[in-house]
């Protein structure tokens, strides 16, 4: 009954935020989302970036450049500060809700625990992959020289390995939050969320509603800020064009290629999981995934692709009960490409800002990339870009300036995110199915 109910939720819901409420999966508690719908002016934002870069290129080296910078730089910096002020409370609300939902799902039985085990394990791998792959790619294919960003928002200290270990737990969570120390705050919120699942129903639900309300209110605020994205990104693009010239265009193209490459590695890992853990042939998985991947590219939504993912699982011989449980759960909680590509973006932003990342900074970033994935929701790429990558950058001491420009071209990497996530979701369903069949296989009787 529970498996069929979860399948119906994911297929029928038109809301982008599927929620396994609190520690109860009752229909009354998960029928509608309280997270407000946010619309992002993506096309206008991209247009603003292009216009800003072109105008900056035209003004570069001319007397009019300095007066233009005197106006554009404060405007861009103010817009970035508007984004930065929402990150900590938004991440706290989303992370708390995501952990509570994950714990609730884990109580649904053996299949749920098996599915979540694969999900959690791969998310950890994805975070490490991003921390390793992007620096390697940047060594092999260096970013174009001559790109210069103004430090509009002051970066924090780049942590070393000892700093990372020492900062895992805050002495005072209030002072840590006031100092925008992301890592200890995230650890505290995570522990607080796990602790809340041990409470009686009434206080547990009150806490869950409180943090859900916090996340919802911050979504509204960030929606207001992002409505001004065309102006803010125009100002940042103009500043970048004046300071960097044509190198800025090369850097954006280079960034897209490298981040998409990291996402492609994650997608390829999905094929490996289907073959090794799911025990399906490579050709069968490739053929079954093609229709779902076409839908994923055209809709840029894992949720909208769910019906074709279910059809792909049936073609691969996945049991109906397994597919109807594992796929909705994966669509709700699993962002396979998230940690790797988010780390890739933050590392590239560090390169553009001239910040040298230590092993400790990369370790801290990977931990935050892994943890904040559980608070990721099916939102427009621009919003999840800010809520997911902002904490990673802040933890590693990377300024937000480059992110304000990179967010405008997120539409292309976002295609790869959806493609990789959809491929991995179906791969997980094959692995869960193979594991369940092994569990259910009768033991041989020796005579």
UniProtKB/TrEMBL annotation:
<feature type="transmembrane region" description="Helical">
    <location>
        <begin position="389"/>
        <end position="409"/>
    </location>
</feature>
<keyword id="KW-0813">Transport</keyword>
<dbReference type="InterPro" id="IPR001991">
    <property type="entry name" value="Na-dicarboxylate_symporter"/>
</dbReference>
<feature type="transmembrane region" description="Helical">
    <location>
        <begin position="79"/>
        <end position="104"/>
    </location>
</feature>
<feature type="transmembrane region" description="Helical">
    <location>
        <begin position="357"/>
        <end position="377"/>
    </location>
</feature>
<feature type="transmembrane region" description="Helical">
    <location>
        <begin position="40"/>
        <end position="59"/>
    </location>
</feature>
<dbReference type="InterPro" id="IPR036458">
    <property type="entry name" value="Na:dicarbo_symporter_sf"/>
</dbReference>
<protein>
    <submittedName>
        <fullName>Na+/H+-dicarboxylate symporter</fullName>
    </submittedName>
</protein>
<feature type="transmembrane region" description="Helical">
    <location>
        <begin position="206"/>
        <end position="226"/>
    </location>
</feature>
<feature type="transmembrane region" description="Helical">
    <location>
        <begin position="116"/>
        <end position="138"/>
    </location>
</feature>
<keyword id="KW-0812">Transmembrane</keyword>
<dbReference type="Pfam" id="PF00375">
    <property type="entry name" value="SDF"/>
</dbReference>
<feature type="transmembrane region" description="Helical">
    <location>
        <begin position="246"/>
        <end position="276"/>
    </location>
</feature>
<keyword id="KW-1133">Transmembrane helix</keyword>
<feature type="transmembrane region" description="Helical">
    <location>
        <begin position="173"/>
        <end position="194"/>
    </location>
</feature>
<keyword id="KW-1003">Cell membrane</keyword>
<keyword id="KW-0472">Membrane</keyword>
């Amino acid at each position: 009954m529970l498996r069929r109910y979860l399948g119906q939720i994911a297929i029928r819901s038109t809301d982008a935020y599927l929620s396994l409420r609190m520690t109860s999966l009752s229909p009354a508690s998960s029928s509608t989302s309280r997270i407000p719908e946010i619309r992002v002016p993506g096309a206008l934002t991209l247009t603003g970036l292009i216009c800003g870069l072109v105008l900056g290129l035209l003004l570069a080296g001319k007397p009019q450049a300095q007066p233009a910078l005197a106006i554009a730089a404060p405007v861009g910096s103010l817009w970035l500060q508007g984004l930065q002020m929402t990150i900590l409370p938004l991440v706290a609300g989303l992370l708390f809700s995501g952990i509570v939902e994950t714990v609730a799902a884990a109580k649904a039985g053996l299949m749920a625990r098996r599915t979540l085990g694969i999900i959690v394990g791969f998310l950890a791998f994805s975070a490490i992959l991003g921390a390793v792959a992007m620096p390697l790619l940047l060594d092999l294919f260096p970013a174009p020289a001559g790109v210069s960003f103004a430090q509009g928002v002051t970066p924090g200290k780049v942590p070393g390995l000892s700093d990372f270990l020492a900062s895992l737990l805050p002495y005072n969570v209030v002072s840590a939050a006031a100092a925008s120390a992301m890592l200890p705050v995230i650890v505290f919120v995570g522990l607080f969320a796990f602790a809340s699942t041990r409470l009686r129903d009434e206080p547990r639900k009150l806490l869950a509603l409180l943090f859900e309300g916090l996340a919802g209110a911050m979504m509204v605020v960030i929606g207001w800020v992002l409505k001004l994205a065309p102006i803010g990104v125009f100002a940042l693009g103009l500043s970048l064009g004046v300071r960097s010239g044509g190198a800025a265009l090369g850097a954006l193209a280079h960034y897209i290629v490298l981040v998409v490459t990291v996402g492609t590695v994650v997608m390829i890992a999905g094929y490996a999981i289907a073959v090794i853990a799911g025990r399906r042939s490579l050709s069968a998985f490739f053929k079954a995934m093609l229709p779902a991947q076409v839908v994923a590219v055209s809709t840029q939504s894992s949720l909208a692709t769910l019906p074709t993912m279910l059809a792909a699982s049936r073609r691969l011989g996945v049991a109906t009960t397994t597919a109807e449980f594992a796929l909705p759960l994966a669509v709700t909680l699993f962002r396979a490409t998230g940690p790797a590509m988010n780390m890739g973006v933050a590392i590239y932003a560090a390169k553009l800002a001239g910040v040298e990342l230590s092993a400790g900074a990369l370790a801290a970033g990977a931990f935050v990339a892994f943890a904040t994935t559980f608070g990721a929701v099916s939102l427009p790429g621009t919003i999840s870009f800010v809520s997911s990558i902002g904490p990673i950058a802040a933890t590693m001491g990377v300024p937000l300036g480059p992110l304000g420009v990179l967010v405008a071209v997120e539409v292309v990497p976002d295609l790869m995110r959806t493609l990789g996530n959809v491929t991995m979701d179906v791969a997980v369903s094959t692995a869960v199915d193979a594991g369940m069949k092994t569990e259910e296989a009768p033991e041989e009787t020796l005579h």
